[in-house]
Design goal:
about 0% strand; about 75% helix; Serine Threonine Protein Phosphatase 5, Tetratricopeptide repeat; 2 domains; globular; single chain; 9 helices; about 180 residues; mainly alpha
Length: about 180
């Protein structure tokens, strides 16, 4: 049995630090489709340091231009959603993820993004549902397990939080 002090340490320090390193160095595995999707997700994340000097705004403008040129690409909407999320424009990001899901209801990236936004807004029950849906579709679930662990932590369910963090670590070690 884990003591309360150990649980707090796991949740507040060790597991988030471990997941941060996992997310930085994780390389996708799986079939062509999951590799393609993972590359598109990586492209959806702003370049390191892009927030400096308004670069994030330039990336948002470029993503919007891509959507204007071809509004039928769900991945373009996902990219815009993650850029807006990074900027802190949660309502706009939610609209982008919703648009992506209208085009591709099986987009685990859009469902994960929605879960993150719902959690940040304090709607933890819906965040949990969105993240669980994303896990069902996601061949690369490391980040989704991490986000779901954070939701459980905010809900005060330490055991579920630790279990999700551990599952994410296990998936990372398996190369998924």
């Amino acid at each position: 049995m884990i003591s309360l002090a150990d649980r707090k340490y796991l949740i507040t320090i060790f597991i988030p630090a471990l997941f941060a390193s996992v997310l930085l160095f994780h390389s996708p595995a799986g079939g062509d489709e999951s590799v393609k999707e993972a590359k598109e997700v990586k492209a959806a994340q702003p370049a390191p340091g892009s927030e400096i000097a308004g670069k994030i705004d330039e990336e948002i403008a470029a993503a919007r231009a891509r959507i204007t040129a071809d509004p039928s690409q769900a991945t373009a909407h996902v990219r815009l959603g993650y850029l807006l999320l990074k900027k802190g424009s949660l309502d706009e990001a939610m609209l982008s993820f919703d648009d992506a899901l209208k085009l591709n209801p099986h987009s685990y990236d859009a469902k994960t993004g929605k879960g993150v936004i719902l959690a940040r807004k304090g709607n933890l029950q819906d965040a949990e549902e969105a993240l669980k849906d994303a896990l069902l579709l996601n061949p690369n679930p490391v980040r989704t397990h991490y986000e779901l662990g954070l939701v459980y932590e905010k809900l005060g369910d330490t055991e579920k939080a630790v279990a999700e963090f551990k599952e994410g670590i296990k998936k990372h070690e398996q190369g998924r």
